[in-house]
Amino acid sequence: xxxxxxxxxxxxxxxxxxxxxxxxxxxxxxxxxxxxxxxxxxxxxxxxxxxxxxxxxxxxxxxxxxxxxxxxxxxxxxxxxxxxxxxxxxxxxxxxxxxxxxxxxxxxxxxxxxxxxxxxxxxxxxxxxxxxxxxxxxxxxxxxxxxxxxxxxxxxxxxxxxxxxxxxxxxxxxxxxxxxxxxxxxxxxxxxxxxxxxxxxxxxxxxxxxxxxxxxxxxxxxxxxxxxxxxxxxxxxxxxxxxxxxxxxxxxxxxxxxxxxxxxxxxxxxxxxxxxxxxxxxxxxxxxxxxxxxxxxxxxxxxxxxxxxxxxxxxxxxxxxxxxxxxxxxxxxxxxxxxxxxxxxxxxxxxxxxxxxxxxxxxxxxxxxxxxxxxxxxxxxxxxxxxxxxxxxxxxx
Length: 397
Hints:
Layout lengths: L22 H12 L2 E2 L11 H12 L13 H15 L9 E4 L1 H13 L5 E6 L3 H9 L3 E6 L1 E3 L2 E3 L2 H7 L4 E7 L11 H14 L2 E5 L25 E6 L1 H4 L7 E4 L2 H11 L8 H11 L3 H25 L2 E3 L6 E5 L8 H12 L1 E2 L1 E2 L7 H4 L2 E5 L4 H11 L6
Parallel strand pairs: 1-13, 3-4, 3-7, 7-8, 8-9
Antiparallel strand pairs: 2-10, 5-6, 9-10, 11-12, 12-15, 14-15
């Protein structure tokens, strides 16, 4: 006999009631149904380095990672992550006690927030924010407090006074993302120093999402928050292989932090996936040891693609905020006579054969993000050229 559920209580946990199907699923389905070019979701349309793929194949054939890997991650990858942090940033981490491998950066974020928050704790995050931030804060029982990045000249900037004013006696944690998705902003040394001083002054924990660390352009530089005075002992730094090596499906991420913070995050993580991506962990260990020429060529290629798409969007009539980092371009649709990013993006596949994402989904204050639309440029040059050609008529469509 089938047991009937009570109609008085919704099936979905109330903490998640505000989160429906992600905009990425909706827009990707539109891309499929219309045959449009998908510049919405941020995944490359080519695979990463052949030698890294071959390393994964060798691991599979040699029986490395085909069974459960160690809970903290395979030693080879933990050692490679620690070496990467030391080589690039002068940050010294013990691979046995201060590095944790996760199922991508998204699990690292979830595990960190589940571990470090109690119900009612406030978390400050910059909006627009990666959509999983809000859901993970909700699942942990926390309260998100958005601080809005706003357009200033040709980029989106942080108001440090607004950030300081947002901190209350209930604030537990700052959730920082730099390089920032979706705006492409890279926080400056001065901004990071001010954030660090605030965190130390108010004794706040910090979770910093740095998955686009190797994608910074022009005069921008990526500086980990953990390098600032007083920050290493209070910062959980999150990295990932997906964006840097173009293997987003492998889902290999990591956390670096003090032993106490890593232990806390691992306590939550072990009840999520427990472990994942065994053979890929060995391959990513080799990827992190690639010569600097790989990272330079990867960044230079993305810079060319950024410029190609940005120029095409400007020609089509958008106001374009050229990103200093990531592989997304945020645009303002008001010069096209449009004000509603949702309506614009839902109509765009039929109008031009291109899919984009409305930035408003990344805001608590939806009106702040209403006129902004995000395009991804991590695609083949020919695909971007065709997208630019299709978008030329958008203003008169």
